[in-house]
Design goal:
single chain, 269 residues, mainly beta, 2 domains, four-stranded mixed β-sheet, 17 strands
């Protein structure tokens, strides 16, 4: 197996579709075979070599180099290996991802990690709207794995999320964790309007205290110290503002009762 570095030659006037360029798919190919692979450009297909300079690596990782903010579907349905974007990524980064690690060293566009089922996606910058959410026309959002955003995220983060862990170090837009089915959403900063709207199950954790819970949430009658210690220790491994979670107390509420929900709204004090 061999790895590759794909360096963007020039910014494309049209958006590029990079689905299919995964570490596993390229690992057994020669340089000439990789250069002949096609990528979507508008309604046409172009040879990869027209858009990227192809260089072999000593390891088995796949690196994209350059400003790829107009390159969509990086890591689309990725099922293993290690992929690194040395810059920003476009829309659908890590969408449908099943296994492996994907690291974006800049920001990502809309719908990052949508319907992700496994693996780890780390975004060092910001993420756009509908991250960890659903693909258009679908009913299920993120289904597993771990998403880490070290910057801010847009609206509808983790909408209809069903499983997994989504961590945001910065702020979130409106409708954070709306219609959450299950899983854990952890926020280190502030959020916009209507967090937890239509929440069914799962845990929404505000490491910085968070806003006042909506009137459709009610205080939990029973304490859950053992549950919180287990969850807090797992979340503390992400470091930063989350490192001290096990030593802090929480206010725990349940809802959204307007949707017959049994989710947890956890404000860390």
């Amino acid at each position: 197996m061999s790895g590759w570095t794909l360096t963007l030659r020039t910014a494309s006037a049209l958006r590029l579709d990079l689905r299919g360029l995964s570490p596993a798919a390229l690992s057994t190919l020669t340089v000439a075979e990789v250069e002949r692979l096609t990528v979507g450009c508008g309604n046409a297909l172009l040879p990869l070599a027209e858009c990227f300079q192809v260089t072999a690596r000593d390891d088995d990782a796949l690196h994209f180099v350059g400003d790829l903010s107009r390159c969509d579907r990086i890591g689309w349905q990725m099922d293993g290996g290690r992929l690194v974007v040395e810059g920003s990524a476009g829309n659908y980064a890590g969408a449908g991802m099943k296994a492996g690690t994907l690291t974006v060293q800049g920001s990502a566009g809309a719908l990052a990690a949508c319907e992700m089922a496994g693996g780890t996606l780390t975004i060092d910058g910001n993420a756009g709207d509908f991250a960890a959410s659903t693909l258009p026309g679908s009913m299920d959002g993120m289904r597993g794995g771990t998403l880490i955003v070290r910057g801010h995220v847009g609206a509808r983060f983790a909408d209809r999320m069903r499983r997994g862990t989504a961590v945001v170090f910065g702020d979130a837009g409106d409708f954070l964790a709306s219609r959450l089915v299950a899983g854990t959403v952890l926020l280190g900063g502030r959020c916009g309007a209507h967090p937890g709207y239509g929440m069914r199950r799962g845990s929404l954790v505000f490491a910085a205290g968070g806003p006042e819970a909506p009137p459709t949430f009610v205080p939990a009658i029973a304490d859950a110290p053992v549950f919180w210690q287990l969850l807090a220790r797992d979340l503390a491994r992400h470091g930063g503002v989350f490192a001290g979670l096990p030593a802090r107390r929480i206010d725990r509420q349940l809802g959204d009762l307007a949707a017959d929900g049994k989710g947890e709204w956890i404000a860390v004090r």
